[in-house]
Design a protein that fits this description.
By secondary structure, this protein is an alpha/beta fold. The protein has a domain of 279 residues: Alpha/Beta hydrolase fold, catalytic domain (Rossmann fold), CATH 3.40.50. It is built from 15 helices and 13 strands. The strands form two sheets. Strands 1, 2, 3, 6, 7, 8, 9, 10, 11, 12 and 13 form an eleven-stranded mixed sheet that branches. The longest helix has 24 residues. The relative contact order is 0.13.
Length: 464
C-alpha cells in the first residue's frame, strides 16, 4: 500500500508540475522532454527533463541530457552544467545517479539524495562526447578519432540549442562543473563560450569548478608516486624506480602510443603488485565496491583496463538504466549498442590529447573575470591533490595573484571539511577531507558545502 500511495503522489506531483509549467510559461520547446516520473521514484516537487539535442545539421549526431530543476525557485537559481570524464564516461550514470543528482538507485527503486546539488541550482547533466551512454550517431564513423576539439565544439552547439529548448534559463547565472578528464572538457568549452560572447552575448558564464581534474599531464600523473609512497602503498625501492626509471606520465604516454617499453612494464608491474588489486586507487581508504564510479578514470589507469574480473558487475546504476521502463521514462534509446554502459565501448578517443595542458586556459578565463575553483578529494591517488595544488599555486604566481585567503582549514558542521587557499579572490583551491576521486559520492555533505560557497562567491566556513 505505501508503494502504491508513493506512485500516486508522484504522478499527481508530475501532473501538477506539468499544468503549472504550461500555464505559467505558456509552454516551451523543452516541455516535450518532461519526465513525468521515473520508475521507483519517490515524490518530488521539482521538474525533471531528459532527451536529445542534435549537434549537426542532418540530425545524425545527438547528445543526451538529464535536467533536474532546483528544488525551490528554479527561475532564480543558477544553471549548472555537469560533465564527467573518462574520456568517454557518463554524466548521467556517474554524476546524476551516483554523485550529486537528486536520486540514487537502491534495488528496484530510487532513493532521495539528501545532499543533491539541485538544492542549490538547476542541474544539467550531459552525456558527452557522442557515443557515451545514450548519446549516439547513426553514422558509426563519428565515433572514430574523437578528440578534445570535436568534444568542445559539440558541447558548445549542445548548449546553444539546449537554450532554444529552455529559453527561460538563458539569463540565469551559468556555471560549468565536472571532474577527472572534465579538466579538459570544461576549460575548452568555457574558452569557446567566451570567444562566442565577444560577437554576441549568448552565455551568462559566472564560474567553473573542477574536481580532481587532469590539467597538466606530467605534474598530475607523476604526483601519484609520492601519494602511493606516503600512504604506504609502495616500498622505498619501488618509489625510487617509479620516480627515476619510469614515471607514470611516461608509462601512460607509451600506453597511448601502443608501445610500452620493457622497463616501464617492469616498474608498473611492481607498482601494481604492491598497491594490490584489492585497494581502490580512487579512494585508498575505501573498501566498498564502486566499479561504475571507477570506470570514468579507466583511461587514466591503463594498467587496470585489462582486468578481466569486475566484482561489481551487477552495479545498481547499470541495472537501473538498462531497464526498458526507465529508458522510456527518460525518452532515451539505444542506437547501435545493446546496452547502456557507464563508459563507452564504441568511442575511439584520441588519448594523446591528454598530454595537452589545459592549465593555461584557466589563466585565460581568470583574466576574463571568470572565477575558477579546483578541488581535490584527498584520498584520490589517480589525480592526487599534491599535483593540483602545485599547478594552482604556479598559475597564481604566473598571473601575479596574491593569496587573499591563507592556507587554512574549512568546516562542515563541527568537523574539518578540508583545507583551502584563495588567490586574488578569483582562483581557489580546496581539498575535501576523506573524499575520493568522485568527491560528491564519498563525501556528499562536505561537497555540497563547497558547492554552495562557490555558487554564492562566499568563503568556505572558517569555524563551526
Amino acid at each position: 500500500m505505501p508503494a502504491l500511495r508513493w506512485a500516486a503522489m508522484a504522478m499527481s506531483m508530475a501532473l501538477l508540475h506539468l499544468f503549472c509549467s504550461v500555464t505559467e510559461t505558456e509552454s516551451f520547446p523543452g516541455m516535450r522532454d518532461l519526465v513525468v516520473g521515473l520508475p521507483g521514484q519517490p515524490p518530488v516537487g521539482f521538474g525533471q527533463y531528459s532527451g536529445y539535442v542534435a549537434v549537426d545539421g542532418r540530425k545524425q549526431r545527438a547528445l543526451f541530457y538529464y535536467f533536474a530543476e532546483a528544488e525551490q525557485d528554479p527561475a532564480t537559481k543558477p544553471l549548472v552544467l555537469w560533465l564527467n570524464g573518462g574520456p568517454g564516461c557518463s554524466s548521467l550514470g556517474v554524476g546524476a545517479f551516483n554523485e550529486n543528482g537528486p536520486f540514487r538507485p537502491s534495488g528496484e527503486v530510487l532513493v532521495r539524495n539528501e545532499y543533491s546539488w539541485n538544492k542549490e541550482a538547476n542541474m544539467l547533466y550531459l552525456e558527452t562526447p557522442i557515443g557515451v551512454g545514450f548519446s549516439y550517431s547513426t553514422d558509426t564513423s563519428s565515433y572514430e578519432a574523437v578528440n578534445d576539439k570535436i568534444t568542445a565544439r559539440d558541447n558548445l552547439v549542445f548548449l546553444q540549442r539546449w537554450f532554444v529548448k529552455f529559453p527561460q534559463y538563458k539569463n540565469n547565472s551559468l556555471f560549468i562543473t565536472g571532474e577527472s578528464y572534465a579538466g579538459h572538457y570544461v576549460p575548452q568549452l568555457a574558452e569557446l563560450m567566451l570567444l562566442l560572447n565577444k560577437k554576441e552575448k549568448l552565455f551568462n558564464l559566472k564560474g567553473i569548478a573542477l574536481g580532481n581534474p587532469v590539467l597538466e599531464f606530467a605534474t598530475d600523473f607523476n604526483s601519484r608516486a609520492e601519494f602511493f609512497w606516503s600512504h604506504g602503498l609502495i616500498s622505498d625501492s619501488t618509489y625510487r624506480m617509479f620516480t627515476s626509471v619510469c614515471n607514470y606520465s611516461r608509462y601512460v604516454s607509451e600506453y597511448a602510443r601502443g608501445s610500452i617499453s620493457p622497463v616501464c612494464s617492469k616498474v608498473m608491474g611492481l607498482v601494481t603488485q604492491e598497491t594490490s588489486k584489492f585497494v581502490d586507487n580512487y579512494d585508498v581508504t575505501l573498501d566498498v565496491c564502486l566499479s561504475s564510479l571507477h570506470s570514468q578514470s579507466k583511461r587514466l589507469s591503463p594498467q587496470r583496463v585489462t582486468d578481466a574480473i569486475d566484482v561489481c558487475i551487477e552495479d545498481e546504476t547499470v541495472n537501473y538504466l538498462n531497464r526498458r521502463d526507465v529508458q522510456r521514462a527518460l525518452h532515451a534509446r539505444l542506437v547501435g549498442v545493446r546496452r547502456w554502459d557507464v563508459c563507452s565501448n564504441v568511442l575511439d578517443y584520441e588519448l594523446l590529447d591528454m598530454e595537452i595542458p589545459t592549465i593555461m586556459i584557466l589563466g585565460k578565463l581568470i583574466k576574463a573575470g571568470i572565477p575558477v575553483l579546483v578541488y581535490s578529494g584527498d584520498q584520490d591517488s589517480v589525480i592526487p591533490l599534491t599535483g593540483s595544488r602545485t599547478l594552482i599555486h604556479g598559475l597564481a604566481e604566473e598571473l601575479g595573484l596574491n593569496a587573499t585567503t591563507a592556507y587554512r582549514v574549512w568546516f562542515e558542521g563541527q568537523q574539518v571539511g578540508g583545507w583551502t587557499q584563495v588567490y586574488g579572490n578569483v582562483l581557489s583551491f580546496a581539498t575535501i577531507r576523506g573524499a575520493s576521486h568522485e568527491a560528491p559520492f564519498s563525501q556528499p555533505k562536505r561537497s555540497l558545502v563547497l558547492f554552495r560557497a562557490f555558487l554564492h562567491g562566499q568563503p568556505l566556513p572558517e569555524a563551526f
